[in-house]
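User: I'm preparing a small set of examples for a lab meeting where we compare how different chains pack in three dimensions. I only have the primary sequence for this one, and I'd like the structure in C-alpha cell form so I can line it up with the others. Please keep the answer compact; I'll paste it straight into my notes.
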Amino acid sequence: MEHAGMMDRPLVLTTSLLSASMAEMIDARRRDAAARGTPLTEAEARRGVLEDLARGVGRAPQTERLTTR
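Assistant: Understood. Below is the C-alpha cell output for the 69-residue chain.
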C-alpha cells in the first residue's frame, strides 16, 4: 500500500525542474537579445518564453519583439 505523501514527490521534482528550465530559457533569451544589441527586461524575456511554450515551440528565434508595456 502506498503512503499518501509518496505521490506528491514526483510533482515537486517536476515543478522544480520546470522552474529551473524556465529560468534557463529566460536567461538565454536575455543573453541572445543583449548580443543583438536589443536588451530585454526579465518580464519581456519571460513573456517571450511563455508565448513560445504556448505555441508549442521549445526555443524559437524571436522574430519580432513585443512593445506593449
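A couple of notes for your slides: Helices lie at 8-35, 42-55. Residues 26 and 47 are 9 Å apart (CA to CA).

User: Perfect, thanks.
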